[in-house]
Amino acid sequence: MLKLGLSTGIGSDSLKLGGLKIFCDGALGARTAALSEEYCDDRGNKGMLVQRKSELDDLVERANEADIQLAIHAIGDVGIGATIKSLASALKKSPKRDHRHRIEHLELPSTGHLKEMRKLGVIASMQPNFIGEWGGTDGMYLSRLGAKRTARNNPFREVLTSKVRLVFGSDCMPFSPLYGIHSAANAPFPAQRISAQEAFAAYTRDAAFASFSESAKGTLTRGSLADFVVLSDNPFESPSKISSVHVMKTVFGGNVVYDGPRARRGD
Fold first, then answer.
1. pTM for the complete prediction?
2. Helix 77-93 vs helix 111-120: crossing angle, to nearest 10
């Protein structure tokens, strides 16, 4: 990227370069996310860090100095801790007022981690779809982490309470934002559960901020891009029924690009 003169933000409103993705640790499903305590269903295994500390520090430092936004994959508490230390070191050497670096997934942060993220201005980029797929009292999280860690996994409520900016994405698990919003608003544990309004903001207003696009999109305001959907029902009236809400019409750049059968029938 540096040799080609590429940096975050190059492109147009339709397609532009975003953050540089770096992997710090693995995933809970593969039992490779780096944990301080062993996996409940694989005794002795605490996961792994993908790179040596010196390698991670070097990548983060060079990207930060070149004004390249970072999107660092860190899931386990050890991986998250290593990522925060690398970011803190890089920002100390080359301070940036508006870097908008992100930690991707951030599934097992501690209270201390969130405090440091708030201090550094690091964004929490998380996926509520994971709760829908693997959460609850009989999901993959429980078998991997046990009851105590599962109850604090993906702590969206704690992230917001800590005043860390929360943004949502799908990570293809599955794509639908409405599925993610339903999963966050109906999450099984208090540390995870947030309101439908907060979940919508994480997918729209705050996600636009995370991509340096808040002046062009993320809110229905005059002067913003005419990108929006028409929904079949009001998702704020009954959070437990968000899963039944569907998209009737999609407008992109002021043009209708999807007009579902229900919308054509007028119901």
1. 0.94
2. 20
